[in-house]
Amino acid sequence: MENNYFEKKLKEDKPVLAICYDFDKTLSPDDMQAQGYIQSVGCSVDDFWKESNKLARDNDMDQNLAWMYSMKSKSHGQVLFTRDKLRDYGAKVELFPGVEKWFSRIREYGKQHGVIVEHYIISSGLKEMIEGTKIAGEFEKIYASSFYYDENNVAVWPAQVINYTNKTQFLFRIEKGVLDINDQDVNAYFSPDEIRVPFRNMVYIGDSDTDIPCMKLVNKNGGHSIGVYNAETKDKSKVFKMMREERIKYFVPADYSEGAELDNLVKAIIDKTAKNEVLEEAYYKCRKETMDVDRKSNDAERDKSNLIIALESSRSFAATHEIIKSLNSYAQWTEAEIEALLSIAVKNSQVFYILTDPDMKDFYNSLLQRVTDPSENADKVRKALNKANKNIAQG
Fold this sequence. Notes:
By secondary structure, the chain is an alpha/beta fold. The chain is built from 16 helices and seven strands. A seven-stranded mixed beta sheet has the order 4-3-2-1-5-6-7, with helices on both faces. Helix 5 packs parallel to helix 10 and helix 11 runs parallel beside helix 13. The longest helix has 33 residues. The protein is elongated.
């Protein structure tokens, strides 16, 4: 019988801060393939990327699949294309200043301040080459493109392809502690008290447009996105662009040395995390106790209370729809409950974003019909629903 069990990381008794890194031009000054491999197959770096990108364009091909195919095809008859050989190339990859000592130092700083710091790679680069670097053992998980190997350890087919659009799934895996790429529990609903790493406790460090979806997701949900640039070239054009477009909160040189700007910034984030989690825990404790007192002490009322708290903390559309489905099973609501649900619709941006979906609209329209003393939140929800209905009628 197939074993469907996947090991998961469980919620800790201390806050966990997950620091997620791109690799190329974030931890290393250049693309990893350009630091030995491309030269070994007799290509110039520019020609390799031009040919690879042309292959992608001409064949409606994912760019990552194109360069993976190009690596394999150009190695034929010239170099061994094995896992070990790719790791050898990875061992030669240059790292930015301070990178080698960065991870243990930041973990130790977190430990001293009551925060568990974990490091993760989320890269479109090649996992096997990253595994060959001196820092490979520093990461809880390396999410990167990789090959499937035959019985002779020769790469024969892509096993995993990670591009900028699917990078975000790994943030949800880290959030829930569901780290195995084949574990479908990443789609399961987790209540707020089960979430291992809330997005507010995530840091994403990257350098360019390919990191934007992850940066945007982390930023939107209260986390910290940091853009880095090469301190030698001092070219800030990419981080300026990301800052103007509100993709990042901060930008600093890619210098990981102790006392550098990045070092001080991440330590400040750790300090904030330690204090903020005390406040978050106190907030949810007080909120739940208050809501429980305001309701009859029975299973149904406690369930309603938990659902309202879950909706307030919901960070995915799928989870929100599931919560609304459960809320719809209740016909009776107190004025305090109605006001709490209206407040959530206004303050939780992702709930507000799907407010006009059929199930959301029906639920909130039914609540508005019960409002006897309209509040500011009730007016905002009513206006949003009326505007959507008007647009539909005009369409």
